[in-house]
Amino acid sequence: MARVVVVGAGLGGLAAAARLAAAGHAVTVLEQAPEVGGKLGWFARDGHGFDTGPSLVTLPQVLRDLFAATGAPLDDVLDLVRLDPAVTYRFADGTRVAVPGDLSGVREVLGPEWSALLDRAGEIWRATEQPFLRSPLQGARTLARLARSADDVRTVAPWSSLRGLGAQYLTDPRLRVLLDRYATYSGSDPRRAPAALATVPWVEQAFGSWYVRGGLRRLALAVAERAAQCGAVVRTSTPVTRVLVEGGRTTGVQLADGERVPADAVVVNADATALYDRLLPADAPVRRARAALARATPSSSGFVLLLALRGRTPDLAHHTVLFPDDYDAEFDGLFTDPRPLADPTVYVSAPDDPATRPDGDSESWFVLVNAPRHEPGRGVDWDAPGLADSYADRVLAVLARRGLDVRDRIRWREVRTPADLGRATGSVGGSIYGTSSNGARAAFLRPANASPLPGLYLVGGSAHPGGGLPLVTLSAEIVAGLVGPA
């Protein structure tokens, strides 16, 4: 039995804690915030409630595997509801498309071009799921696994961008815009992100989009409870300031109050850049990992409005996405010339769930636009006086221009910038996913789950295999395998 300290109680850390405790290890989870969940946050006021992070579950089998491996099955703990339609898209030309929640329906609504793309995406998924997404990142050995079959290499097309793959299959400009959107799931630019990201719409549409009744924060609470049932100790309001290194390996962590918590293994569910730059000593033997992070492009962030609204919106889907006239201008403003976007894509999550509103004549909207990260002096200073409120007004005006004017229905609003996200979660600059997928080698620059320092492991969206609830949960499974049984 090993003593394991998990730094951070986001989904990745909690899932790793549950698996490791179920395997017989002595696990302690240390979370800086007063509550568990990390980016799976929740905000409530005056009867209105909001998930402040992810708003849907994809690839639910990964969660089912987690719960099955650690105790009672998922369906005994959480109520997952399949969304249908999964999302309604509004394009700049006025077209509206409600995308069904099942693959056959998607193929019918989006047509033969999208169907052909999905067929290719399914082939990419089958070629990469086991050797890459479910396996540790091991440099040249990982490349060798992926390159074992020439047919698989041609299928994955590592030399092609997501935009380039779309050009092979899609002539309808609206479908091209729709495909581009999936690069933003990893905070990336479709012009530079790899074609393999086509697996994101494949997973979403093949396995469905799901909502946790009562809000996705219930998922984090359920995994935390499962970890505790397996024997893990969860300590909140306990910030870690240092990963301790002695004799060439990690020996535990130091807390803000000076307490030292010894460990045989440390699992870090925090931003990888924060770990390598702030939590480890400058002379820690992790030079290559730091250099890889320095070469990677940070992911984009998000600007969020939480809107408490009077009244109900007719025919409002659970998710609504409103696209701009010029999508490339958005990606330029995220990565090339960072600036608050003048005409951003707007994403609205408005669950029809009594847990999110005080009465039947109210709505609670989570509104998100992509945003460059907080980078004073080099990019956007989201703490600049007046910027947050003025940009919130701009986002509301964009919503109004695109047919969802709710300005006269607002009871109150809560504004959250990339700077706020960085402070709340420890993500450097508020980069939601750590590093982006920009560039053919981006996946291999992402920090591995086993760090170069013996005894130190990484889970969560900034580590391999990447961001999003399914991949974060897979990172925990990978780490539990690396640590091994008690």
Automatic annotation (TrEMBL):
Residues 11-480 form the Amine oxidase domain. Pfam families: Amino_oxidase. It comes from the Bacteria. Its EC number is 1.-.-.-. The keyword Repeat does not apply. Belongs to the carotenoid/retinoid oxidoreductase family. GO terms for molecular function: oxidoreductase activity. Residues 1-17 form the signal peptide. It comes from Klenkia terrae. The keyword Cytoplasm does not apply. Coiled coil: none annotated. Pathway: Carotenoid biosynthesis. This is Phytoene desaturase family protein. The gene is crtI. Keywords: Carotenoid biosynthesis, Oxidoreductase, Signal.
